[in-house]
Amino acid sequence: MGTVTDKASWADAMAGFSSWRGELEGGAHGAGISLIFVHTEKVGDGPRLHRHPYPETFIIRNGRARFTVGDETMDASAGQIIVCPANVPHKFENLGPGLLEQIDIHDAGKFETVWLE
Question: Is the pLDDT confidence value at 47 over 70?
Answer without folding.
Answer: yes
